[in-house]
Structure formats: structure tokens, C-alpha cells
Amino acid sequence: ASKTYNTSIIIGLVIAGLIVFLLEYFNEKIVDKKDLEKCTKIPILAVVGHNKEENDLAVINHPKSVISESFRSLRTNINFMVAGKEKFCVLITSSVSAEGKTFCSINLASAFAILGKKTVILGADLRKPKIFQDFDLKNDKGISNYLINKAGLDEIIQPTKYENIDIISAGPVPPNPSELISNKNME
Questions:
Q1: For position 154, what pLDDT does the model report?
Q2: The whole model's pTM is what?
């Protein structure tokens, strides 16, 4: 009876180990930096963790946090890449909502603003604008107004209560956001 018991335990452990091995072997998800480095030759400038705070202003509200340090590291690497340029543009995008575009934009801009760099955040999400909410600003005028020539650039730039950070919000949601973005005024 004890021999059957021991054999059953060993078989159970082997089956469990085999299942774990197969799940790991056939896992095609990107879990960490090494997985990403295997797939591409594009340089990885920083790895930013998940924000567990109520709002998106991690660099401003928690300057000594791990996330703030991640954005300072990203800022340093971007500075290295754009060395010698006084003005440059950083685009943060993804094809799916809720992947952290607003969070990354706000905190990267904050990291540059803390260095004394004049920073403007463009909230170009013309379908579900929200970047203005984190700064307690209005969205009554923005990019959509500018693109249809209903407002000038100086009318849509909103100062924030934080030094060196201004916002251009999306403005009222237009009926044709994709077409509006391709407008020559977007340049």
C-alpha cells in the first residue's frame, strides 16, 4: 500500500511538473525585459511599473517612488538620444485604450519639467479625452478647435499649477476624429 502511495505521489509530481513546463514552453506573452529583447533590436529606454495610486501624477506627488525613478531614467535616456537638440517631440501611443498613454505622458512631461524644461502635453485622444482631468483643467477648447480653425494656438494652451508644464487638451469630441488628425494644421 505504501509503495502504491509513493508511486502515486511521484506520478502526480511528474504530471504537475510536465504541465508547468508545457505552459511555460508554449507561453508567448511578453512578461519581462528579456522577453522583449529577444523579439526586437529596438533599444529599451526604461521599464515603468504599474501605478497603484489614485491619480496619474506619480512623479509630482511621489518623487521618491520607484515609478518616479523609472521616469527619471527614461528622461535621462531620451536626453542622451536627443543630445544637442533644444526642442524635440516624444510620441506615446498604443492601439488599445487603458495601456497607460496618459499616465506615461504626464509623468514623462513632469520629469522634464522638474529639470526646468518647458513642457507642453498634447492630449490628442479626440475620442475619449481625459488628460485635462488630472490637472483640474477644462476641455472646452483644444486641439479639435485648433484643427478646424476655431481657435488659435495661444487660446488652447492651458497653464497648469505645476511649473514648466502646460497642457493642450483635445477639446470637444469631433464627429470625425481620424480625419481631423490628418488635417495639415496638426503639423
A1: 93
A2: 0.77
